[in-house]
Structure formats: C-alpha cells, structure tokens
Amino acid sequence: MDTHKMNTAxxxxxxxxxxxxxxxxxxxxxxxxxxxxxxxxxxAAIADLIEHQGTLWQVTPWALLFLLRNMHARRPEDxxxxxxxxxxxxxxxxxxxxxxxxxxxxxxxxxxxxxEKYLWPADSDPEEDELEWEEEEARGxxxxxxxxxxxxxxxxxxxxxxxxxxxLQHYADSEIAESLSELVQQLRKNFKYKKTxxxxxxxxxxSK
Length: 208
Description:
Elements: H1 3-13, E1 25-26, E2 29-30, H2 34-39, H3 43-50, E3 51-52, E4 55-56, H4 60-73, H5 81-97, H6 126-133, H7 143-170, H8 175-206
Antiparallel strand pairs: 1-2, 3-4
Helix pairs in contact: 3-5, 4-7, 5-7, 5-8, 7-8
C-alpha cells in the first residue's frame, strides 16, 4: 500500500476521541468543546469555532471530517439549514484564500497535522496561550500548517460533493433545496479553480 492510501486509511478509521481537541485552537481558545457540539449537532456554535472573518483554524478540517462523515450516515431528511450554512461559511473562506493558492504548500496527510510540533501544550493556561498568540508565528500556524487547514478542508468537502448532489436530488423546492443548490455550485466552482490551478502549476514546472 502506498503512502497516500495508508494515510487515507488511517484518516478514515480515526474516531472523534482520537483527536486531541484540547490541543487544537479556535478563534476563541481551545477546541475542547467541539466533540460535544458535534455530537449534539449544534451547528451554529460549531461554525463560530471553525471560521472567523474568513479565516479557518486548526480545528476546521477535523470538525469537517466528522461532520461530513455523520452527514453521509444520516437520512437525507435529517439535513438542516443550520448545517448547510456551516458548510457555506467554510466554502466562502476557501474562495477568499484561493486567491493566494499559487505559492502554497500543504502537508501530505491530514494526520500529519497531529504531529507534536503543531499541537499546543496539553495543560491549557489562558495566560500562556495569550503569550503564544503574540508570537510572530504561533504554534500550528506556520505557512505550511496554516495553508493545510484550507487545503484539507477543501479536500474533505470535495469528497462530500456526491453526498451534497444526492441530497439535492432528494429535495423539491424548499429553502434546503435552494441552499444545497448554491452549495453544490460553489463547490464545483471552487474545485474547477483548484484543478485549473494545479494544471497551470504542473505546466510551469514541466516547462522549466
């Protein structure tokens, strides 16, 4: 099995309790509450912790991993507008960041973002955390790690596109159908841009 397949298999077998949420950050502190919020489907509260003013955070791809996995396993009629609004918020942040995609690098696998060098100290001290944020480059927010939060969020949403398309077929005219239609269009546009950008970069490399 190649490295990509091994990393994918590992990611797909992760349980929510395997992620050290208390060592990952949000705009408002640590991500300790996210497993509870995900379990209780508190989408508005989750959205506040995974996106802020167009910025994605350490917790974002991990929250998406389990939210999208749960969505895949649920009945179509269980989807809610608040959950779809959460995905819209992330996609909008991806659209903004795509403008800077040409020169960015990402980690090879999502699980690499659980490396000790990216994780915050296990013992959460608000004062020490505040000092860490004042550093020029806070832990877990070096350029490669930071871009990886966008890249892997994008990859996870891309994998879920068939689920969104299937849900769209299930709903007739409704607010949910309208939201799903807009989301599917946004995702297709985003991935078309990403694919075009990758082809462009490959062409630039091959021409050198």
